[in-house]
Amino acid sequence: MNFSELFKLSGLLGRFSPDGKCLASSIQHRLVVRDASSLQILQLYTCLDQIQYIEWSSDSLFILCAMYKRGIVQVWSLEQPDWHCKIDEGSAGLVASCWSPDGRHILNTTEFHLRITVWSLCTKSVSYIKYPKACQQGMAFTKDGRYMAVAERRDCKDFISIFVCNNWQLLRHFDTETQDLFGIEWAPNGCVLAAWDTCLEYKVLLYSLDGRLLSSYRAYEWPLGVKSIAWSPSSQFLAIGSFDEKVRILNHVTWKKITEFDHPATISSKKTIVYKEVEKSPTVDTERLTFPPTRALASSLFSTQSKYDISQVPVSLQYIKPVADRANPKVGVGMLAFSADNCFLATKNDNIPNAVWIWDIRKLKLSVVLEQLCTIQGFQWDPCQPRLAVCTGSSRVYLWTPGGCVVVQVPGEGDFQITSISWHCSGDSMLLLSKENFCVCYLEREEV
User: What InterPro entries does the record point to (predicted)?
Assistant: First the structure.
């Protein structure tokens, strides 16, 4: 592996362009666009205030920069650096901004979720969508970009509206059988929309494109319910992570549960491989010691390295009992992700914060557990092959493939705490983000 030098960053705002050619990052009120392979600066833009959100258009020709405090969105063009666009929501305020799938419309959500404003860059026309619901995932586009679903709240009832994206005409409008709709998400094939209720009510509803209720799923009644969901890339499976520390898999034919995965604190199956991260202090040749020590020697003296050992089962994982009398308890399956080939599912149970669970979907069983020294901050699958990258807020990256597991130390001085990982669309490089810096990790072709 090769690593770039560290570059300054603010707000974890670093994004590869969809075509993979460019890399955008922000430093306070400046937007820096680099070549993704050489990291040479291509463009430098100055915004009116500190940037709080950036997003590429689908064709990689424009970049949106949102400044929520000011209620302003600025749009920059890569082809025409002199062209610029400013959208000011004024007294209505701004809490969210995103591109439409065609990359020529911007959707702004005003404060208090009074409305969504659709701005056209081509015709300069404006459309309004009323009554959007203030929830975690209240807007969703189909993967082909043809339709948009919006969660709405009217007269103390939940509704979903489906719009055609090329002219923003309303296609369907229907009410949902939810107490307090929490989120919506399209299946990758765009045929089914999943909607789920607040954590106080375990309910997952599946709707067709024309608004028909295909199925309703409820695993149990009274305890806290759904915490996360994820569609498989083939749209064949819907994984539901719950507060009871289980993942339930629904199939796309009957929408019934085909299996459920538990996350016990003790791994006892001999068919499960447990990789445990262990730290080792470097051995230093005393004859090489000088005073004062050289910078390279000093850094090697005080740096610890880590590697994976395969643990003998049974293995007891670090389990944290949640504090019951506090809001948002650290309990249940909060992270889910399918591999690009549909063969594996990675999960994290918040009660066991240092472990990543990797399930074999073909055999419907637990394949691997990665036990880390620190809390899992995030993980993401390679978009081209079954390879999982994990970060834990340290200066190390962890890679798992069906062939094995490896710990990679990011070289460099200073404390580079990786809290987010983003794969390049080709799968041959990764963007590693910390609160104040970022670097790019390039994987060798042999490794790829």
Answer: Centrosome-WD_assoc, Quino_amine_DH_bsu, WD40/YVTN_repeat-like_dom_sf, WD40_rpt
Last residue of one domain, picked from the residues 74, 95, 125: 125
Kindly report whether the peptide bond that precedes residue 329 is cis, defined as omega within 30 degrees of 0: no
For the record, the structure tokens of 349 come out as 């149970």
- Note down the domain range covering 311: 273-282+294-447
User: Six-digit token pair at 300?
Assistant: 């090697």
Taking residue 304's Cβ as centre, other Cβ atoms within 10 Å add up to 10
The answer to the question of residue 173 being in a domain is no
Q: How many domains does the chain have?
A: 2
Whether the CB-CB separation of 429 and 440 falls below 8 Å is answered with: yes
CATH value at residue 23:
2.130.10.10
Selection from 356, 157, 109, 331 nearest residue 227 by Cα: 331
Write the pLDDT tens digit of every residue in 48-91.
999 999 999 999 999 999 999 999 999 999 999 999 899 999 99
Q: Give the sheet arrangement for strand 305-310, strand by strand.
A: 305-310, 273-280, 365-371, 355-360, 344-349, 333-338
Domain-located, residue 247 = no
Please indicate, yes or no, if residue 93 is contained in any of the structural domains. yes
Q: What is the CA radius of gyration of the chain?
A: 24
Residue 188 CA to residue 186 CA, distance in Å, equals: 6
Of 125, 151, 173, which residue is a domain's last? 125
Question: Phi-psi bin for 343: left (phi > 0), alpha (psi -120 to 50), beta?
Answer: alpha
Q: Which residue has the tokens 């340290």?
A: 394
**pTM score, two decimals?**
0.92
The Cα–Cα gap between 431 and 420 comes to 8
Residue carrying structure tokens 């306070």: 28
Q: Which residues of the chain have pLDDT under 50?
A: 447-448
Find, among 359, 385, 372, the residue nearest to 306 by Cα: 372
